Amino acid sequence: MKTIKELLASHGIELVVMELEKRGYYFDELKLMVVNQNQSEEKQKQVILHELYHALNHSDFNALYTNPVFHSKMENEANTSMINYLIQENDGQFNYTSVLEEFNLGLGWECHLN
């Protein structure tokens, strides 16, 4: 995860891995990301990538996060970004079915994967 940690550092985001009830959080006002230590390293990486998208693209929209429509849209964008990063990291080699199953996505998602 060295590359991910360098990416966080380049944006001035501190990462803390600790025991949590949820997978992870990003605290915009503190530029602090907290990730659950009870996940595999791969799951932690996925959470970090998801939260990083929120940090870089949604920080101006925190007030909208309580609205279910905007919340769903922002979560979709963060998931899409995370999945695309992981696919690119594997030189575009992936299995649509395994990606859909791994991230518990519906069949409509295959058109979002590039």
Short summary of the structure?
With 114 residues, this protein is of the alpha+beta class.
Distance between the termini: 23 Å
Computed CA radius of gyration, to the nearest angstrom: 14 Å
Give the averaged pLDDT, no decimals. 84
Strand order within the widest sheet?
Answer: 1-3-2
The helix/strand class is: alpha+beta
| Anisotropy-based shape | globular
Beta-strand content: 5-15%
What low-confidence regions span 5 or more consecutive residues with pLDDT below 50?
Answer: none
DSSP strand tally: 3
Count of helical regions: 4
Largest sheet: 3 strands, mixed
Percent helix, as a range, is: 40-55%
Secondary-structure element series: HEEEHHH
Topology:
Elements: H1 2-10, E1 14-18, E2 24-27, E3 32-36, H2 41-57, H3 68-89, H4 96-102
Parallel strand pairs: 1-3
Antiparallel strand pairs: 2-3
Helix pairs in contact: 2-3
